[in-house]
Amino acid sequence: MTNFTEIPILDLSALINGGDTKNLAQEFRKAYGTTGFSYVINHGIEQSLIDSVFEMSKKFHDQELDKKMCFQIDKTHRGYIPINTSTDVTTDLAKVTKPNQSASYMIMKEDIAINPDIYLSGPNQWPDVLGFRDACEAYVTAMSELGRKLMGLALESIGVDDISILKSFSDPTTWLRLLHYPPQSPRAEKDLYGSAPHKDFGCLTLLAQDDVGGLQVMSPSGNWVDAPRIPGSFVVNVGDMLRRLSNGILLSTPHRVINKSGRERYSCPFFFDPHVNTVIKPIKGTGNPIFEPLLFANFLRSELEASYQAHQVKH
Length: 315
Fold this sequence. Notes:
By secondary structure, the chain is of the alpha+beta class. It has helices at residues 13-17, 22-34, 47-61, 65-68, 132-157, 240-245, 296-307; strands spanning 9-11, 37-41, 79-81, 103-108, 173-181, 195-198, 204-209, 215-218, 224-226, 234-238, 255-257, 265-273, 279-280, 294-295.
C-alpha cells in the first residue's frame, strides 16, 4: 500500500449518465489500489431520499429503550442492536475487549419467509414508526442499483474479461444499518470505540454520514486519517470479499469511529454483497490466485457468531 494523508474524490457522472468510464475506471483502480476508500460525488441518489432515511433513523433511536427492544435483532440479523452487544473480536488491528459504543437497526433483503437453504434469509422487522418501511425500502432499491454499477466499474478497473461474478449481484445480499453513536466522554479509555478498528467483510460499503465526524481511515504507516462528511457525497470502501475477488488488487482498509464531539452522531452505511451462496475466489485474469475459494455464507456465519450476542451458539 501507498501512504496517504487524505481520501480521494471520484466523480461518478460518467458511470451514472452512461458515458465513457475509461478514465473513471483508472481513477477507481488508483484510489482502491492505494487507499481502499474514496468519496463519490454525482452518484445519482437524491438527497431527499438520503435525508428521509436519516429522519427515520433518528425517530427510531429517539424512542424509549423498552419500545426498541421489542424489535431486538434475530438470527436472520434483522432488527435492533442495542449498545454494548456487539464487539469486534475478530479484528487483528487492536485488542478489543469492550463492546462498540453504538446502537443500530439492521435491514436486509425482504424475504417472505426463512429459506433453510439460504443463510440469513427472512422477513425484516418493521417498527411502527410512520414512514419507516417506505423510506428504507426506497433507499435500498436505489442504493442496490448504484452498488451494481460500482461493481461493474470495479471489474473494469482491474481489467478482467470474465464478469460472470456480476450474476451473483442480481440477487444480492444487502444490509442497511441505521447507526446511532452517543457522544463518548473525552476521558474515555483509549480502547473504547464507537466502532473498533476493523475491515469490512463484504464487497462494497456506501456510507452516508452526518456532519459530526469521527470516521477515521488507517494509512499503511499506522496514522489515522479523518474522513469527515463532504455534502452530497458517499464514503465508499472495499471490503474483504472484493479484495479476494480482485486477487488483492483492490484493498480492504482498516477504519474506526470515535465520537468525542459531545454530539449525537448518525450514519447510514449500506453494504452491497453477492448472494450468500456465492463461492468467493479470485476472478480469472487477475494473476495467480493468492486466496483460497470460500463460501460466502460460511464466512458470514463465522463473523456474525463471533461478534454478535444474538448469533452466538448456546451450549
